[in-house]
Amino acid sequence: MTLHEDEIPVDEAVIRSLLREQRPEWATLPIAPAGAGTDNTMYRLGDQLLMRLPRTPHNAQAVRKEQTWLPRMAPHLPCRIPEPVHAGTPGSAFPLAWSVYRWIDGDEAGPGSVTNWAAFGSDLATIVQSLHSIPLMGATRQGGLSWYRGGGLHACERWISECFDTCRTIQGGLNLDIAYLQHLWQSALALPEPSARHGWLHGDLKPTNLLVQRGKLHAVIDFGGLSVGFPDAEHSPVWDLPPKARQAYWDAMSLDDATWLRARAWAIAVAVSGVSYYWGTYPLFVSECLSRLRAIVEAGGEQ
């Protein structure tokens, strides 16, 4: 499944070639697809390893970032995060940097894996608070650590307006109150800019990046969006969770109203842009985005 114009295809032959060149001791391990997101394709190597290959040259910039910072952040967090075990370099079969991590067992957060959504929301808040409290260790919001979701909403105003326009033109319609969602987005633009101190941000805490064991939140994965910045957008994926989890998260974080409204606006912006960009190429991701937008509409003025 190709999602981007500059995407570099990957298959088992590419995997074997890279391993033979750089980690021959792993070259004969069983290989199985382990999922694919918008930025990376994953393969499981044997029982203990996960190989992650960026889809595009731009996505490859995150590899070194994770290799550098995740080992330094892990001791500060109350959950498992990816543990890098190999920093792959471009090879004859694949021209980008890639990585190998320890495999983490667990299921994606969802109705079939989470046993108590209120507890889940509270546990997620604890992880987010811990992440945001980690010392920056000299890191600043520049280069690879300056992802747009750590900035202000106004920088995205024109882009998101165009995404709303695209959503209105989708053939067959989206069965969605686009006008209401755009009203919420524009209302958030009238709020004061965030003033919280910069901190570490995961950038994409959606359910597919939250692993559950025995009904409880166990690990956070995919730090490709790791950055330094304002925390508002960090809270936006809670709109992918049931209301009980969202309320528990709100209560535990003690967010002020302006931060929460900006977070909701970020949730809208990311989902609208996802529908706009991936319509026709990635129906599963589009479905996730639409579910988030419908949850926001259904909640109305609620938290």
Automatic annotation (TrEMBL):
Pfam families linked to this entry: APH
Alphabetical UniProt keywords: Kinase, Transferase
Keyword Zinc-finger part of the UniProt annotation: no
Domain Aminoglycoside phosphotransferase: 31-266
GO molecular function, one term: kinase activity
PANTHER family for this protein: AMINOGLYCOSIDE PHOSPHOTRANSFERASE-RELATED-RELATED, BIFUNCTIONAL AAC_APH
Protein name, entry field: Aminoglycoside phosphotransferase (APT) family kinase protein
Organism encoding this protein: Streptomyces zagrosensis
